[in-house]
Specification:
This protein is mainly alpha-helical and about 150 residues long. It is built from 7 helices and no strands. Helices cover about 70% and strands about 0% of the residues.
Length: about 150
Amino acid sequence: MNSSVGLSASSQALPPRNNAPEVSLFRLYTLRLAYLIMAAGLGAFIWPHVIHHANQYGRAYGIQVAILAGLGATAALGLRYPLQMLPILLFELTWKATYLVAFAWPLWSAHQIDAATAEDIKSVLMVVIFIPLIPRRYAFSQYVLKRGDRWK
């Protein structure tokens, strides 16, 4: 009698089965490389502006720099947890795609790209290196097919 009670209690304690597709070790390392590129790149180019800046620079660019600094610092977690931090990579792809479609494309179509805007577009276009690194089947199963968390 005790063994059946113990068996039913232990089976209830098991977590629900995860039906996510297996992600290869190679893909995990490529994701880690993407997070390393994000963290190191933003660390090298953004964090110096966070640490040493004039008040005028803070007024003009403080919000953008703070968001990018936080994104880079959070991306460093992807080195340890590459799949759990996938939303950070998806956020990076989403905001850059939004910029390219909603802002850069109309400027390009109107022939109004100046040198500064061209540099911005060039740096944003670097996002294409992340696209093949996304484990698409895993992301689709986790963020589209998987049942969401309860609301109440």
